[in-house]
Amino acid sequence: MDEQRFNMSMRKFLKEVGVTSQQAIERVVREEGLGGKGKLRVKMVLTAEDTPLDHVVEGDIDLG
Fold first, then answer.
1. What is the pLDDT of the chain when averaged over all its residues?
2. Which residues does 44 contact at the CB level (< 8 Å), separation at least 6?
3. Lesser CB count within 10 Å: N end or C end of the chain?
4. Domain tally, the chain
5. Residue 40, class by beta-carbon neighbours within 10 Å (0-12 exposed, 13-18 middle, 19+ buried)?
6. Residue 42: how many CB atoms within 10 A of its CB?
7. How confident is the model at residue 45 (pLDDT cuts 50, 70, 90)?
8. What is the pLDDT of residue 3?
9. What is the pTM of this model?
10. Alpha-carbon torsion, ordered 51, 42, 60, 7, to 10 deg
């Protein structure tokens, strides 16, 4: 396996996940009028087809 190629591909994917996830969260906060209303509980689930990967990250986003 080409480690450099793998790392670059993974970083590109994770950058896309981060950018598009932030845009989706901002959109729902704006459309639902949630700004300034406590916290938004979020959960991200990462799976990979044909693998046992099932990674969950949960957290709160302060809407203050």
1. 97
2. 21, 56, 57, 58
3. N
4. 1
5. middle
6. 13
7. very high
8. 97
9. 0.87
10. 40
> Amino acid letter at 45?
V
Among 34, 32, 18, residue whose Cα is nearest residue 61: 34
CB atoms within 10 A of CB 35: 10
For residue 28 the two structure tokens come to: 């729902």
Mean pLDDT over residues 22-32, rounded?
97
- CA-CA distance, 62 to 52, in Å (whole number)? 32
Beta-bridge mates of residue 43? 58
Give the per-residue pLDDT at 46. 98
C-alpha span between 11 and 30 (Å, rounded): 28
Asked whether the beta carbons of 14 and 46 are under 8 A apart, the reply is: no
Domain that holds residue 7: 3-62
